[in-house]
Amino acid sequence: MNLHDVDVFNAIMITRGAGAAATLLDTSQPAISRSLAKLEAELGFKLFDRIRGRLVATREGELFHAEVKANLVGLDRLKLRAAQIKEVGTGTIRVASLSALGHGLVPRAIVAFSRKHPQVRISYQVRTSNVVRDLVASGSFDIGLAADEVDTSGVLHSVFNTPRAVCVMPKNHRLAEKAVITPTDLADEAFLALSPEDTVRVAMDKVFAAHGVRPRILIETPYGLTIAILAARGMGIGLVNPSVIADRMIAGIIATPFEPAVHFRALILRPPDGINAALITDFTAELYAARNVLSAEE
User: Fold this and answer.
1) In this structure, what CATH number is given to the domain that contains residue 3?
2) Do 63 and 7 fall into the same domain?
3) Which of 46, 49, 70, 267 has the most CB atoms in a 10 Å sphere around its CB?
4) What CATH number does residue 200 fall under?
5) Do residue 116 and residue 154 come from a single domain?
6) Is residue 82 situated within a structural domain?
């Protein structure tokens, strides 16, 4: 069995798509498809069903992936260590983040860190929280930021921040003059919602139910950045992590506190035996510094 083909299979499983796996492995999608077909032929069973152009793991694929993950952890760490030995004297750190913190907070930390360590290379990816967790757990990445609903087995973790959700809306919205937005303000409003499985969405649904309010959900998305962009285009109002709108990245919107308070909760993740400790310590310090500055700006 070719280890490259197994790597391809693992990449498809953690990214949930052949195109995303090709990006992760820096190869082409046809090459991904060839490797997958070869592996399935060698195994003698299907790893994925092709449903409406998407790859959906079969039961056999899920069982095989459980074994692959257990066996690839050591190999991934060997690859990472070899790469770092090759780059000794310059250093490399690998950072992954969920979208909510990945476009405002983390870039601030990267800029500050790079000014102090211009010789250090940074590999940075914005991914879903589950993918961030898998990248860190495998040892492929040194540090990750993820939502608190991820599986934390196999990683070191602690709470990174708990920012209060804010309502984003167009500047000309009828609620734009209010100092605080309440559940009753949102009755029958076109609402831009986070995905149903998001912990903040779950908390929001409970708040609305307690107040007897049912917002008119127009769009559901896992990304607060998407909500802010759609709000700027006049599509409605939604609740987001304030880090999403840091540095005035999105014009044409205002952010207003929501009452009662609902908080996001992000974790900082590390592999259980992380290396390059000095650089990671320095970068982690910049993450916390960026967090503190953004908290003061809210």
Assistant:
1) 1.10.10.10
2) yes
3) 267
4) 3.40.190.10
5) yes
6) no
Residues in the chain: 298
Regarding whether 226 and 183 lie in a shared domain, the answer is yes
Task: Return the biggest CA–CA distance within the chain.
Answer: 64
Range of the domain at 220: 166-257
* 89 pLDDT higher than 50: no
On whether residue 282 sits in a domain, the answer given is yes
pTM recorded for the entire structure: 0.67
For 136-167, b/e burial (b = at least 16 CB within 10 A) is bbbbbbbbbbbbbbbeeebbebeebbebbbbb
Average per-residue pLDDT in the chain?
88
Q: What is the predicted pLDDT for the residue at 75?
A: 63
Q: What is the pLDDT of residues 20-54, one digit of tens each?
A: 888 888 889 899 989 999 988 988 999 998 888 78
Q: What are phi and psi of 250, to 5 degrees?
A: -120, 120
